[in-house]
Amino acid sequence: MSRTKGLDIVSLNTEVPVPAPGERVTPRPVLEVSDLRVSYPTVAGPVEIVSGFDLTVAKGERVALVGESGSGKSVTARALLRLDHRATVSGRILLDGTDLLTLSGAEMRARRGRRIGLMLQDPMTTLNPVRTIGSQVMEALRVHGVGRAEARRRSVETLDMLGIPDAARRMRSYPHEFSGGMRQRVCLAMAIVAHPDLLIADEPTTALDVRVQEQVLSLIDSLVDEIGMGVVLITHDLGLVAGFADRVSVMYAGRGVERGPVRELYRTPRHPYTAGLLASVPRVDRDGALAPIAGSPAQPASRPGGCAFHPRCARAESDCATVLPEPRRIGAADVACHHPLTAAEEGPR
Fold this sequence. Notes:
The protein is an alpha/beta fold. 28% of the residues lie in helices and 21% in strands.
């Protein structure tokens, strides 16, 4: 992905004043999540899937949420939009300062699509096969009171911007008439046609070939620059994250275990789980066999005490099994680990 990985995101938000010489200005957060907890009912009682998760996204910022399957990433995404009525959600989810957990159903529906866009991983389950592409893209505007003619104009404009050839004519097409990459572009159009403040992209490149993956992420990347929205990219593919994100939040067993700037986190991971994930990813600058993480991910209904990663961790000591580690600042990262890696170490011992 060919963009300069700077952090010049202040300029994307016109509401933030230009800092005086020597003054440091932090971009205003569009999303602030604190102590998020999500549980689901089971025959044996409620099971907590997400346990005390924190996340902050500024306007114009790209934040990746990574972890193995089952770590709670997609559950977190659905909780942010309050999409699953079976779930019990607590904590705080602030969107531009408003706690979404305090809103009525109607107030929340008014923010979905218009303030928060969601792009899911499987376009064939996202798109309705018996409705035209145009009607589905327009719906995100129509439900918020935009007139039909204006909704159509903006939908054609968005599809054209995303590279759909002959967009006005293809508005009359059906999902099966599009390729996989084009269907994913349509899903992206549905998510951003209303120019939301925040886009949540949940595994948006799954099942796409490498060339189409690059195209989809490049489109999202350019939209951040053009309209200044914040992005939460949920993925298990750390290779994609390296070229896209400004910051990374690593999730394990429903908890955030490490978060920090992408460059520093990839260069010097401090949590053994983060180091294990990076060691299992093929890299052109490193020879030798990949090193998978030992053991299996913790199951929500039977998480071990203390640090949930300790049964799989070669650095674990007695306190790891009994005391839940709280995040602490180490360098540029926040790390929830009793025995983190040092800067001189390349991976878990």
